[in-house]
Amino acid sequence: MFLRLLFALVLMAPTLVLADRSCDTKFQKVCIETVRTGNAIAFYAENRYRLLPVTMNIELELLNLHRTEGGAGPFVLGGNERVHVFTLSQRRKSEWSYRYTFTWSRGDITARHDDSHMYRLPFALGKAFSVGQSCNGNFTHTGPHRFAVDFNMPEGTAIHAARDGVVVDLKENSRSGGPGEQYKDQGNYVVIQHADRTLAQYFHLRPGGAEVRLGDRVRAGTLIGYSGNTGQSTGPHLHFDVIRGTKTVKSETLPFRFVTAQGPVRCPPRGTTLRAVK
Protein backbone atom coordinates (compact mmCIF):
# COMPACT_ATOMS: atom_id res chain seq x y z
CA MET A 1 0.00 0.00 0.00
CA PHE A 2 1.33 3.46 -0.90
CA LEU A 3 0.40 5.08 2.39
CA ARG A 4 1.99 6.49 5.49
CA LEU A 5 0.57 7.50 8.89
CA LEU A 6 1.73 10.29 11.21
CA PHE A 7 0.36 11.68 14.49
CA ALA A 8 1.46 14.86 16.26
CA LEU A 9 0.23 16.39 19.54
CA VAL A 10 1.62 19.67 20.86
CA LEU A 11 0.90 22.39 23.40
CA MET A 12 1.28 26.08 22.83
CA ALA A 13 4.94 26.74 22.15
CA PRO A 14 7.27 29.61 21.25
CA THR A 15 7.94 30.23 17.57
CA LEU A 16 10.25 27.58 16.11
CA VAL A 17 10.67 25.65 12.89
CA LEU A 18 10.43 21.85 12.86
CA ALA A 19 10.38 19.64 9.76
CA ASP A 20 9.40 16.02 9.31
CA ARG A 21 9.42 13.87 6.16
CA SER A 22 7.35 10.74 5.61
CA CYS A 23 7.58 8.63 2.42
CA ASP A 24 5.52 5.73 1.10
CA THR A 25 6.68 2.53 2.76
CA LYS A 26 6.96 0.37 -0.37
CA PHE A 27 8.83 2.42 -2.96
CA GLN A 28 9.99 5.57 -1.11
CA LYS A 29 9.00 7.58 -4.18
CA VAL A 30 6.22 9.89 -2.93
CA CYS A 31 6.75 11.85 0.27
CA ILE A 32 5.01 14.33 2.54
CA GLU A 33 7.09 16.90 4.39
CA THR A 34 5.53 18.89 7.22
CA VAL A 35 7.21 22.11 8.34
CA ARG A 36 5.97 23.59 11.63
CA THR A 37 6.54 27.24 12.37
CA GLY A 38 5.05 28.12 15.73
CA ASN A 39 1.47 26.86 15.63
CA ALA A 40 1.15 26.50 11.85
CA ILE A 41 2.08 23.42 9.80
CA ALA A 42 2.88 23.66 6.10
CA PHE A 43 2.46 20.46 4.05
CA TYR A 44 4.69 19.80 1.03
CA ALA A 45 4.28 16.90 -1.38
CA GLU A 46 7.22 15.48 -3.32
CA ASN A 47 7.32 13.11 -6.30
CA ARG A 48 10.73 11.46 -6.60
CA TYR A 49 10.04 9.80 -9.93
CA ARG A 50 12.07 11.56 -12.58
CA LEU A 51 9.26 11.87 -15.18
CA LEU A 52 6.28 9.80 -14.06
CA PRO A 53 3.27 11.89 -12.94
CA VAL A 54 1.41 10.70 -9.86
CA THR A 55 -1.84 11.57 -8.11
CA MET A 56 -1.59 11.95 -4.35
CA ASN A 57 -4.42 12.28 -1.83
CA ILE A 58 -4.23 13.27 1.86
CA GLU A 59 -6.84 12.48 4.52
CA LEU A 60 -6.74 14.60 7.69
CA GLU A 61 -8.04 14.29 11.26
CA LEU A 62 -7.72 17.66 12.97
CA LEU A 63 -8.16 19.01 16.47
CA ASN A 64 -8.20 22.80 16.86
CA LEU A 65 -6.62 23.29 13.41
CA HIS A 66 -8.00 24.41 10.07
CA ARG A 67 -6.72 24.75 6.52
CA THR A 68 -5.64 28.36 5.86
CA GLU A 69 -3.78 27.94 2.56
CA GLY A 70 -4.02 25.52 -0.35
CA GLY A 71 -6.68 23.05 -1.40
CA ALA A 72 -8.14 19.73 -0.34
CA GLY A 73 -6.74 17.65 -3.22
CA PRO A 74 -6.24 15.25 -4.79
CA PHE A 75 -2.94 16.68 -5.98
CA VAL A 76 -1.19 15.92 -9.26
CA LEU A 77 2.60 15.92 -9.05
CA GLY A 78 4.79 15.99 -12.14
CA GLY A 79 8.06 14.12 -12.27
CA ASN A 80 10.68 15.33 -9.79
CA GLU A 81 8.27 17.93 -8.39
CA ARG A 82 7.91 19.26 -4.83
CA VAL A 83 4.97 21.56 -4.11
CA HIS A 84 3.32 23.27 -1.16
CA VAL A 85 -0.17 21.76 -0.98
CA PHE A 86 -1.69 23.45 2.09
CA THR A 87 -1.07 24.95 5.52
CA LEU A 88 -2.85 24.17 8.79
CA SER A 89 -3.17 26.85 11.46
CA GLN A 90 -4.32 26.90 15.08
CA ARG A 91 -7.91 28.02 15.64
CA ARG A 92 -7.65 29.11 19.29
CA LYS A 93 -5.17 29.05 22.16
CA SER A 94 -5.42 25.47 23.37
CA GLU A 95 -4.01 22.06 22.53
CA TRP A 96 -4.02 21.01 18.90
CA SER A 97 -3.25 17.85 17.03
CA TYR A 98 -3.33 16.37 13.57
CA ARG A 99 -3.28 12.97 12.03
CA TYR A 100 -2.94 12.20 8.33
CA THR A 101 -2.72 9.37 5.86
CA PHE A 102 -1.80 9.65 2.21
CA THR A 103 -2.13 7.46 -0.84
CA TRP A 104 -0.80 7.78 -4.37
CA SER A 105 -1.21 6.16 -7.75
CA ARG A 106 0.49 6.33 -11.14
CA GLY A 107 -0.91 8.90 -13.52
CA ASP A 108 -2.76 12.21 -13.63
CA ILE A 109 -6.33 12.10 -12.29
CA THR A 110 -7.24 15.11 -14.48
CA ALA A 111 -6.25 13.33 -17.73
CA ARG A 112 -9.10 12.95 -20.22
CA HIS A 113 -8.68 10.12 -22.71
CA ASP A 114 -9.08 10.89 -26.41
CA ASP A 115 -11.69 8.25 -27.18
CA SER A 116 -11.38 8.89 -30.90
CA HIS A 117 -7.83 7.59 -30.94
CA MET A 118 -7.18 4.15 -32.43
CA TYR A 119 -4.26 2.20 -30.92
CA ARG A 120 -1.95 -0.01 -32.91
CA LEU A 121 -1.52 -3.53 -31.60
CA PRO A 122 1.66 -3.55 -29.48
CA PHE A 123 3.67 -5.88 -31.70
CA ALA A 124 5.18 -5.90 -35.17
CA LEU A 125 3.09 -5.37 -38.29
CA GLY A 126 1.88 -8.65 -39.75
CA LYS A 127 2.38 -10.56 -36.50
CA ALA A 128 -0.61 -12.19 -34.80
CA PHE A 129 -1.10 -13.29 -31.19
CA SER A 130 -4.00 -14.65 -29.18
CA VAL A 131 -5.70 -12.91 -26.25
CA GLY A 132 -5.06 -14.70 -22.96
CA GLN A 133 -7.10 -12.37 -20.74
CA SER A 134 -9.26 -9.41 -21.70
CA CYS A 135 -11.46 -6.86 -19.97
CA ASN A 136 -13.09 -8.13 -16.77
CA GLY A 137 -10.88 -11.20 -16.80
CA ASN A 138 -11.08 -13.64 -13.90
CA PHE A 139 -7.42 -13.40 -12.83
CA THR A 140 -6.18 -9.80 -12.51
CA HIS A 141 -8.36 -7.69 -14.83
CA THR A 142 -11.01 -6.69 -12.31
CA GLY A 143 -12.30 -3.50 -10.71
CA PRO A 144 -10.13 -0.48 -11.57
CA HIS A 145 -7.90 -2.82 -13.63
CA ARG A 146 -10.70 -4.20 -15.80
CA PHE A 147 -9.84 -2.48 -19.11
CA ALA A 148 -6.67 -4.40 -19.98
CA VAL A 149 -5.60 -6.98 -22.53
CA ASP A 150 -3.01 -9.77 -22.22
CA PHE A 151 -1.42 -11.21 -25.36
CA ASN A 152 0.06 -14.70 -25.21
CA MET A 153 3.50 -14.62 -26.85
CA PRO A 154 6.90 -16.29 -26.50
CA GLU A 155 9.55 -14.58 -24.41
CA GLY A 156 11.66 -12.27 -26.51
CA THR A 157 8.85 -11.13 -28.82
CA ALA A 158 9.41 -7.58 -30.07
CA ILE A 159 7.04 -5.05 -28.43
CA HIS A 160 6.14 -1.87 -30.33
CA ALA A 161 4.52 1.35 -29.09
CA ALA A 162 0.75 1.42 -29.60
CA ARG A 163 0.61 5.23 -29.64
CA ASP A 164 2.93 8.25 -29.85
CA GLY A 165 4.28 9.51 -26.56
CA VAL A 166 7.16 10.01 -24.12
CA VAL A 167 8.75 7.28 -21.99
CA VAL A 168 8.16 8.38 -18.38
CA ASP A 169 9.00 5.23 -16.43
CA LEU A 170 10.57 1.82 -16.96
CA LYS A 171 11.90 -1.17 -15.08
CA GLU A 172 14.03 -3.96 -16.54
CA ASN A 173 16.13 -5.36 -13.67
CA SER A 174 13.75 -8.03 -12.37
CA ARG A 175 14.27 -11.74 -12.97
CA SER A 176 11.35 -12.89 -10.81
CA GLY A 177 7.91 -14.02 -11.87
CA GLY A 178 5.06 -16.33 -10.91
CA PRO A 179 1.29 -16.44 -10.33
CA GLY A 180 1.34 -15.39 -6.67
CA GLU A 181 0.70 -11.94 -5.18
CA GLN A 182 4.31 -11.84 -3.97
CA TYR A 183 5.41 -11.26 -7.57
CA LYS A 184 3.05 -8.32 -8.17
CA ASP A 185 5.74 -5.63 -8.00
CA GLN A 186 8.44 -7.70 -9.73
CA GLY A 187 7.35 -7.17 -13.33
CA ASN A 188 9.51 -5.29 -15.81
CA TYR A 189 7.70 -2.61 -17.79
CA VAL A 190 7.74 0.49 -19.97
CA VAL A 191 5.29 3.37 -19.33
CA ILE A 192 4.56 5.93 -22.07
CA GLN A 193 2.66 9.20 -21.58
CA HIS A 194 0.38 10.36 -24.41
CA ALA A 195 -0.63 13.85 -25.55
CA ASP A 196 -3.88 13.58 -23.52
CA ARG A 197 -1.76 12.83 -20.38
CA THR A 198 -2.96 9.22 -20.12
CA LEU A 199 -0.33 6.51 -19.67
CA ALA A 200 0.12 3.26 -21.61
CA GLN A 201 1.67 0.42 -19.60
CA TYR A 202 3.53 -2.48 -21.20
CA PHE A 203 4.16 -5.13 -18.52
CA HIS A 204 6.06 -8.42 -17.98
CA LEU A 205 9.07 -7.60 -20.16
CA ARG A 206 12.08 -9.88 -20.00
CA PRO A 207 15.14 -8.92 -17.89
CA GLY A 208 17.01 -6.14 -19.69
CA GLY A 209 14.07 -6.03 -22.07
CA ALA A 210 13.64 -2.26 -22.56
CA GLU A 211 14.86 -0.76 -25.84
CA VAL A 212 14.05 2.82 -24.80
CA ARG A 213 15.23 5.16 -22.07
CA LEU A 214 13.50 7.72 -19.86
CA GLY A 215 12.59 10.82 -21.82
CA ASP A 216 12.63 9.14 -25.23
CA ARG A 217 9.93 10.32 -27.62
CA VAL A 218 8.44 7.43 -29.54
CA ARG A 219 6.05 7.10 -32.45
CA ALA A 220 3.38 4.43 -32.76
CA GLY A 221 5.19 1.37 -34.08
CA THR A 222 8.57 2.15 -32.46
CA LEU A 223 10.34 -0.87 -30.96
CA ILE A 224 10.28 -0.34 -27.19
CA GLY A 225 11.27 -3.72 -25.75
CA TYR A 226 10.88 -7.49 -25.63
CA SER A 227 8.21 -9.58 -23.90
CA GLY A 228 8.93 -11.84 -20.96
CA ASN A 229 7.40 -13.53 -17.94
CA THR A 230 8.35 -11.29 -15.00
CA GLY A 231 5.98 -10.16 -12.26
CA GLN A 232 2.61 -11.70 -11.42
CA SER A 233 2.20 -13.96 -14.42
CA THR A 234 1.03 -17.48 -15.21
CA GLY A 235 3.05 -17.68 -18.43
CA PRO A 236 4.89 -15.58 -21.03
CA HIS A 237 2.73 -12.72 -22.25
CA LEU A 238 2.40 -8.95 -22.66
CA HIS A 239 -0.04 -6.98 -20.51
CA PHE A 240 -1.26 -3.72 -22.06
CA ASP A 241 -3.49 -1.06 -20.56
CA VAL A 242 -4.13 2.69 -20.58
CA ILE A 243 -4.48 4.46 -17.22
CA ARG A 244 -4.90 7.69 -15.29
CA GLY A 245 -4.40 8.38 -11.59
CA THR A 246 -7.01 8.11 -8.82
CA LYS A 247 -7.40 9.14 -5.17
CA THR A 248 -6.53 5.57 -4.12
CA VAL A 249 -3.49 3.32 -4.57
CA LYS A 250 -4.92 1.79 -7.75
CA SER A 251 -4.75 3.65 -11.05
CA GLU A 252 -7.87 3.54 -13.23
CA THR A 253 -7.70 1.66 -16.51
CA LEU A 254 -9.55 3.29 -19.41
CA PRO A 255 -11.37 1.77 -22.40
CA PHE A 256 -9.52 1.98 -25.73
CA ARG A 257 -9.72 0.55 -29.25
CA PHE A 258 -7.15 -1.38 -31.28
CA VAL A 259 -6.76 -1.20 -35.04
CA THR A 260 -6.69 -4.81 -36.28
CA ALA A 261 -6.97 -6.74 -39.55
CA GLN A 262 -10.55 -7.48 -38.47
CA GLY A 263 -11.37 -3.80 -37.90
CA PRO A 264 -11.53 -1.68 -34.71
CA VAL A 265 -11.67 -3.85 -31.56
CA ARG A 266 -12.41 -2.93 -27.94
CA CYS A 267 -12.01 -5.61 -25.27
CA PRO A 268 -11.34 -8.53 -27.66
CA PRO A 269 -12.71 -11.83 -26.29
CA ARG A 270 -10.32 -14.30 -24.73
CA GLY A 271 -8.96 -16.69 -27.33
CA THR A 272 -9.26 -14.19 -30.19
CA THR A 273 -6.20 -13.96 -32.44
CA LEU A 274 -5.41 -10.44 -33.61
CA ARG A 275 -3.07 -9.43 -36.43
CA ALA A 276 -1.28 -6.08 -36.38
CA VAL A 277 -1.93 -3.60 -39.21
CA LYS A 278 -1.27 0.12 -39.66
Task: Describe the protein's architecture and organization.
The chain is an all-beta fold and about 280 residues long. The protein is built from no helices and 24 strands. Strands 11, 12, 13, 14, 16, 17, 18, 19, 21, 22 and 24 form an eleven-stranded antiparallel beta sheet that branches. A hairpin with a 2-residue loop joins strand 3 (about 30-35) and strand 4.
Secondary structure class reads: mainly beta
Mean pLDDT: 92
What share of the residues does DSSP label as strand, in percent?
over 45%
Helix content: under 10%
Number of helix segments?
Answer: 0
Low-pLDDT regions: 1-16
Q: Using the alpha-carbon principal axes, give the shape.
A: elongated
* Main sheet specs: 11 strands, antiparallel
List keywords for this structure.
single chain, 278 residues, mainly beta, five-stranded antiparallel beta sheet, elongated
Topology record:
Elements: E1 4-10, E2 17-23, E3 30-37, E4 40-47, E5 54-63, E6 65-70, E7 75-77, E8 81-90, E9 96-106, E10 118-120, E11 128-133, E12 148-152, E13 158-160, E14 165-171, E15 177-178, E16 188-193, E17 199-210, E18 217-218, E19 223-227, E20 231-232, E21 237-244, E22 252-253, E23 257-259, E24 273-275
Parallel strand pairs: 10-23, 15-20
Antiparallel strand pairs: 1-9, 2-3, 3-4, 4-8, 5-7, 5-9, 6-8, 11-12, 11-24, 12-21, 13-19, 14-16, 14-18, 16-17, 17-19, 17-21, 21-22
Brief overview, please?
This protein has 278 residues and is mainly β.
